[in-house]
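Pasting as-is:
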Amino acid sequence: MKLDTIQLLRGLAALAVTLYHLPLAEQAAIDLAGSEETAALGWLTRNGFAGVDVFFVISGFIMVYVTRARPRGARSAADFLAARVIRIYPLWWVFAAAAVAISLAATRSPVQPAFGVPEEAIPAYLAASFALVPQDFPPVLNVGWTLIHEMYFYLVFAALLLAPQRLLPMAIAAWAAVVVLAATVFGELTASSAVTALVFHPLTLEFTAGAAAALLIASGVKRFALPAALAGGGALALAMIAADGVGHGGWSRALLFGAPATLLIYGLAAMELDKPRAIARPLVFLGDASYALYLAHTLVFIIARRVQIEAGEALAGAGAPAALVRPFQLGAPGPWDNLVYWTLGLSGALIAAAIAHLYVERPALRGLTAVRLKAFPKARRGAPGQW
């Protein structure tokens, strides 16, 4: 059973991240133009990165949800991991390749100079980026850092599927305890390499919290659904609006955003499992296309900037009045240049996500899932049914 409310929340999380990056991209373009103008609405979307925290909690929840009724063992674990690989990698490769192409067109290098990758290390860097392997540099498409976390989550969870179902709650608790212990007792060790920084990252607790929420529902505890959803949604909204100076990877982030997201997801899922609710199809589609939106938006923002500049130059070259040219010159006085950029960037990101989801992601998933089902015909027992 597909949980439409969780799918809607996934879409809203991707949209929040998109809105977080939009004024950042706008400010970079304004700075390149030599203007001292400030990007529009950056103050309002400054905590939109919390959409990632929602993603992580949802991931932990869904992993328990989709595997609850499956038999345990090596075959089931391999089937689970294969499902996650075909979900993550094909679309990632498409957009990572697009990032390389854009970088080559702009800088004649496959890697943005700002990443600081030595020229001799570029081949190994690109291989690690496409494989989503942790390294000392950000992946070629910056948002891919979250996918490195996701693949780590999936690897550990696949290992947990080797154990009997009854041990899963203890295993999840032990995993969370190891992360907390490592960070509090061996803090310097956790930052000693890209691998240890990943393994002991505080945001791992968001994944385990989502898994715990699913286990709680599976055990029949649903009576706190409505107050949890209200408290979690209210606390998350308040944190996103009012929190200031939150680190992008620390404990404060997991507490401020991950904890209320867990309450919200527990509440929404428990209520929908008890009484399914119809969600408007466009909103569910936003959730369906959320992964494509997450990967596409920063690249679209770069293209939108180029389109806006080219349009302004074309208008100026055609002798258009200055009042008509200014909206296409980022950093020009007034709000119109900002409005044009936001319109191009946001609409372009949504359109690109829809196209990528319908014509790349869906066909790839259908084809690769058919192959997977033939390879693992006995690894599933179906959906978790009525929790």
